[in-house]
Amino acid sequence: MAIGEIFLGSFFQFLLEKLASMVLNYAQWEGTDTLLHKCEEMLKIINAVLDDAEDKQLDGDHRVKQWLDNVRDLAYDTKDLLDEFEIEAAQVKLGVESSTSKGGVKRKFLSFSQLHSPTFETKLQEIKGRFEDIVNKKAPLSLRENVVDRSHYTNKRLPSTSLSEPQFFGREKEEADILKLLIGEAENVDRTLSIVSIIGMGGVGKTALAQRLYNNDKVSNCFERRAWVCVSDVFDVLDITKTILGSITKEPCKDKDLDRLQSKLKDNLSRKKFLAVLDDVWNVKYEEWTSLLKPFEVGAKGSKIIITTRNNSIVCIKRVSSYFVNVLSKDNCTSMLAYHALRARNFEGHPNFEKAGKRIAEKCKGLPLAAKMLGGLLHNRENPKE
Ligand SMILES: Nc1ncnc2c1ncn2[C@@H]1O[C@H](COP(=O)(O)OP(=O)(O)OP(=O)(O)O)[C@@H](O)[C@H]1O
Ligand SMILES: [Mg+2]
């Protein structure tokens, strides 16, 4: 398996998911949906030949290498632009909502022209142009489509548990900030249940961070009841309730009746301060939230639900404090790669590997999942050329 393929492949997967969710979320933005949709279509066309391109690059095909370099640059620029768009769109949406709530005329459609940055549409057109160029230049390279099924290492991750990573790198500030949201006095003075949402791209370390917090001594001392649920793609209220109840009572729970389960959970949470982590939440409908949260209303002041998600527009009925997780610092990413490849904190004791190691770490762009997977692949390789 080619090294570049892992993170470019997962990065593409992430971009595709992001674009798909944006096409849904911004369907009412005049013009935007069409442009986003076009980018999504072209991304899929490129994605289909990525594996073959990576193989040909490894075989020394310079034209393919140049093409892949352009693909990589475009992928990163697209992500930056989408991030920029989401921030601006959220601001515009807020502005529109507050003006309609003050009696303004409700508009059905929002458009680019409302975005603060006048250059945004130009930038998106430019990105679309680059996509077209890359798709056009693909033809003479004779790349084959879908030669490898990459779903096994992008989508099929193991379900998470509450246990922390044995070796954890960085994230001191993130941990302190979220800790404050969870147990800070000022933040919890007059609230019963509130929700902290940890948001970030796939593989950036949301779950790992939530695990650290869940096992933090201050957290375990502060909450009388704690529960961890790996939600993943299906938000099943019955299953989630069952898992939370099971982890609180420490007994397996086979009941399939939601009413009985919720009543039991309610009894167990009554006047207790609790923390529940819902890991890897994708999409939740409003009615599913209302149903899930019913038994939680009886908990003591300061009770919390943490959700980790890639989707920053999850519907939620309670006040949510959103915390965005960014990539790891270069040093921490290098340490992670060194740990998984060599069981060392850095490359100092391994001069033969230092140069290549640091270059590979740089290519991980701060993504812990990439550092861990590449480190694992390089483990036990004794020849630096490999
Ligand atoms: N700071 C860290 N120190 C050590 N390992 C980490 C760190 N952050 C993440 N990891 C490891 O990197 C991998 C990816 O991280 P994680 O699963 O937390 O990402 P995620 O953001 O939850 O991804 P997804 O959106 O796919 O759920 C995991 O194996 C995790 O244990
Ligand atoms: Mg996760």
TrEMBL record:
It comes from the Eukaryota. GO terms for molecular function: ATP binding. Residues 13-101 form the Disease resistance N-terminal domain. GO terms for biological process: defense response. Residues 190-342 form the NB-ARC domain. Keywords: ATP-binding, Nucleotide-binding, Plant defense, Repeat. InterPro entries: Apaf_helical (IPR042197), NB-ARC (IPR002182), P-loop_NTPase (IPR027417), Rx_N (IPR041118). Pfam families: NB-ARC, Rx_N. This is Disease resistance RPP13-like protein 1. It comes from Eucalyptus globulus (Tasmanian blue gum).
